[in-house]
Specification:
Helices cover about 65% and strands about 5% of the residues. With about 450 residues, it is mostly helical. Helix 9 runs parallel beside helix 12 and helix 19 runs parallel beside helix 21. The N and C termini lie far apart (about 150 Å).
């Protein structure tokens, strides 16, 4: 009996030992699995504090007053009220009963969270762990606004020290009898000075010089017309003083540019006849330059003026410039004017026709410019300018010859001098174009000139 009792006692001891070991292993296994499942326990308590009020739990805390928890790669205890960044691992330590959190580990043992990557980019940041309430944040923002206002005020004060207000400037100008004038008021004074018998020659010339600046604007030119300045300037073309004639023509040309109303008044005021007289008589080169400028401004886009120009023998006057000594600088200007007038009519005839455009085409058809050019042998006058050494002059002449080719082809074919000149130009521009290509400029200036020369030679064959 004692034997069986001993065996039973031994079996009981073994069973008890197995039970204890099972409990230990079960608890250890449960503890190890907690991080895997990242269990989070939400604690609730019905216990009231000494004041009889329920304690404030984490869920009841104001989100603005939450203290941020900054996890590391080691498990750390979470205090009540701390906010855990997204992506952190959280567990309940069954031994201590407290919640713990840390950064998640990747397979290679490094953190891949967005917060960690941000920290790597920004470097080490000293973060104050103290929480900020909404009131504290509002106070901080208020201080920032006050600081910005102070900086803005300091900047405005600095600007005031450097610059004076417009009101103060006006007061000072009034004290000095100086006031800001409009263009109209300025032109009235300039015209008065030019027309005054008390003004000296230099003062009248200075008045014209200043007027030229203002009448470039279309509206100012119309005001200049309405206040009688245009007719005074036209009359100034008859002056015996070369300087007055030069600057009067300069002002006239500026006022006429792309201004039909002024063009009409000018031709009715006799400006065309006076300009042709200046170009036909012996005058200084500077005077003729400005007169040719005024004539060009009057004729462009004004078919009636072109018709009157031909009736008054304007082409013969321009051709006479080629027989006068010292007028070489005017040659290319005259050729350019002829080219523009011919192209102006051709482009208009090729454009789409409307009622208003048809009326203008009828006006241009009354201008017999090309027949007059051929009749007065301008074909040779123009082609002879190809012998001039300046490339810019040659370019303009080549364009004009190309336009005249349709009317002067037979005349050009019989011109041996032209044939020789074109051959020399082709040889010269072939070398210059080849040099351009060697320098890397495939579509250079001289290649373009060479193309114009070759086109003319091809058409004359």
């Amino acid at each position: 009996m004692s034997h069986w009792t001993g065996l039973l006692s031994t079996a009981a001891k073994v069973n008890l030992l197995v039970l204890v070991v099972s409990v230990v292993f079960s608890r250890s296994s449960l503890s190890d699995r907690v991080p895997e499942f990242a269990l989070t326990k939400i604690e609730e308590s019905d216990i009231k504090d000494d004041s009889g009020k329920e304690p404030i739990t984490e869920d009841d805390a104001d989100p603005e007053d939450l203290e941020v928890f900054y996890p590391t790669h080691q498990w750390q205890t979470l205090r009540p009220g701390q906010a855990v960044p997204a992506g952190s691992r959280v567990r309940l330590n069954l031994q201590t009963g407290e919640r713990e959190a840390k950064l998640p580990d990747s397979e290679n043992g490094r953190s891949d969270t967005r917060e960690e990557r941000r920290r790597k980019r920004l470097g080490k940041v000293d973060v104050d762990s103290n929480s900020f309430t909404s009131q504290e944040l509002k106070k901080a923002l208020a201080k920032m606004k006050e600081s910005e206002k102070a900086e803005r005020k300091a900047h405005e004060e600095e600007v005031r020290k450097k610059f004076r207000p417009i009101e103060q400037l006006k007061e000072e100008f009034e004290k000095m009898n100086v006031k800001m004038e409009t263009d109209y008021e300025i032109m009235v004074k300039l015209i008065s000075k030019f027309n005054s018998s008390a003004s000296t020659l230099d003062e009248r010339v200075a008045a014209l010089y200043d007027l030229e600046y203002y009448v470039h604007q279309v509206d100012n030119a119309k005001d200049f017309l309405s206040m009688g300045g245009l007719q005074l300037v036209i009359d100034g073309l008859n002056s015996t003083e070369a300087a007055l004639k030069e600057h009067a023509a300069f002002v006239l040309g500026a006022a006429l540019s792309s201004n039909p109303k002024v063009q009409i008044e000018a031709i009715e005021g006799g400006a065309l006849q006076k300009l042709l007289v200046i170009l036909a008589t012996e005058q200084p080169l500077a005077v003729k330059k400005k007169a040719l400028f005024a004539l060009s401004s009057m004729l462009r886009h004004f078919p009636y003026a072109q018709q009157q120009f031909l009736k008054l023998g304007g082409l013969q006057v321009l051709r006479s410039l080629f027989r006068q000594k010292g007028m070489e600088t005017l040659y290319v200007r005259v050729v350019t004017l002829l080219y523009d007038l011919i192209m102006e009519k051709m482009l208009l005839e090729d454009s789409q026709h409307g009622d208003q455009m048809e009326e203008k085409i009828q006006q241009y058809r009354q201008v017999k410019l090309v027949p007059a050019v051929v009749e007065q042998d301008w074909c040779v006058v123009v082609s002879n300018l190809l012998a001039m050494p300046e490339h810019d002059t040659r370019e303009k002449v080549l364009k004009t010859v190309g336009v005249l080719m349709a009317f002067c082809k037979e005349r050009y074919r019989g011109d041996q001098a032209l044939s020789t000149t074109l051959s020399l130009l082709r040889s010269e521009y072939e070398e210059l174009a080849a040099e351009e290509q060697r320098e890397g400029d495939k579509d250079g200036y001289f290649k373009e000139l060479l193309g114009s020369v070759n086109t003319i030679i091809q058409e004359l064959r």
